[in-house]
Amino acid sequence: MRSHLLNDTTAERYRRSVTEGIERVAAKLATTDRPFTGVTVDALAPRIERIDLDKPLYDTTAVLDELEDVYLRDAVYFHHPRYLAHLNCPVVIPAVLGEAVLSAVNSSLDTWDQSAGGTLIERKLIDWTTERIGLGPAADGVFTSGGTQSNLQALLLAREEAKPGRAGWETSASHAKLRIFASEVSHFSVKKSAKLLGLSQDSVVSIPVGHDKRMQTVVLARELERCKRDGLVPMAVVATAGTTDFGSIDPLPEIADLCEQFGAWMHVDAAYGCGLLTSLKNRHRIDGIERADSVTVDYHKSFFQPVSSSAVLVRDAATLRHATYHAEYLNPRRMVQERIPNQVDKSLQTTRRFDALKLWMTLRVMGADGIGRLFDDVCDLAEAGWKLIAADPRYDVVVEPSLSTLVFRYIPAAVTDPSVIDRANLYARKALFASGDAVVAGTKVGGRHFLKFTLLNPETTTDDISAVLDLIAGHAEQYLGESLDRAS
Ligand SMILES: *Cc1c(COP(=O)(O)O)cnc(C)c1O
After folding, report:
1. What is the pLDDT of residues 398-417, one digit of tens each?
2. Ligand 1 binding pocket includes 310 (Cβ within 6 Å)
3. Which residue range is the domain that position 125 belongs to?
4. Chain segment 231-260, per-residue pLDDT in tens
5. How far is residue 376 from each of residues 128, 279, 371, measured CA to CA in Å?
6. Best substitution site from 88, 187, 348 to test ligand 1's pocket, by max atoms within 8 Å of Cβ?
């Protein structure tokens, strides 16, 4: 069994084994003609269930054959141009190469003595990101598992900073008094974080958005006033730069002004909109982000990186101390004096992947402009798609895209009952998924069911969009035909 350990004597097995796996995936990618096979849970579950994990096959080739059956054949493929559903991107090859290297070397980024160069590479990428944002000379940050964790950590720092002293709050405010302001279409991880941070149930104040799905800062100002009047503490405002549902970007400069005025921590959730940091023509859309106290970026959404790759960045490195604990066996306090860089001092995680290497490889091979061009392409595609849908009498589209998302619904001319229209759209999404021809997402707007394209594949064309719109209309019409038959 020792022949399975990766070491100096097994290099040949490693090479053969990994190459064989890569060949399978490469063949799969080359021959996948749909984003999904449409397999059902009921069809797939027994295939996985009948495998006895206590009866190994002892043979890599046989296991890869089996993997075809339980995973590869029916996986949802994000690289396919008709995968238009969630915030998943096709990945760039330098990043996948980075992934292969980082898992083989298996550095852990918690301490210098488990990573060495990995720590310095991560730190350089953090600096690169804070410079792109414009957070200033005292900025810092750390890679995380995703936007959810980044938001949690940012709000932890905000909670600690909201305690005595900050912006006129002399007394220690109990957690019950802390308030977070976020738009009604902010990510649900804001509420989850508030819960994890022990804040009260009504700690997250939901600020309405306008028809453009951006936070109404007039209401934010009013709510901040009210918060102060009620003797509560405005702990943080979460501005979303690229909402998950619409890609809308909250008015960052106005929000920054209000945060300054009310002494609230400004967190910018740019999990999605961070792609604009490399954009060659749309960077200005996130102007104001440089005034944030903390920023969430998800490289695994708009930097074409494999899951997971994310970071939380802060204006003031000193605020990261709120996540610092020292363990004698790992990162004793004296190491700080010795200037040994232990990233665990800044992180909620302990053992941690060297995800930064993927971004490093990407920047070294393609350059930031290379990523920016890809992201600009999908933003252009969304603009073209918006024009297509807006001109299509079969559809209603919600808002002109700020990034690469389109939210729309099928509205048959002959049907006026809104619940029937809801059901037709729900049915169309399901039927499309079952067909495997394309994958789209869905959401609710104003209580009604809508469909959603999240465009992150530069290989998707307007022809793909047109074709998918026709497919959706076909399924919806079929549903309406059948439900009319049933009614008569
Ligand atoms: C996706 C997303 C998150 C959560 O990020 P994960 O990487 O999925 O944990 C947070 N905020 C926004 C705006 C997002 O789109």
Report:
1. 999 999 999 999 998 888 89
2. yes
3. 107-365
4. 999 999 999 999 999 999 999 999 999 999
5. 20, 6, 9
6. 187
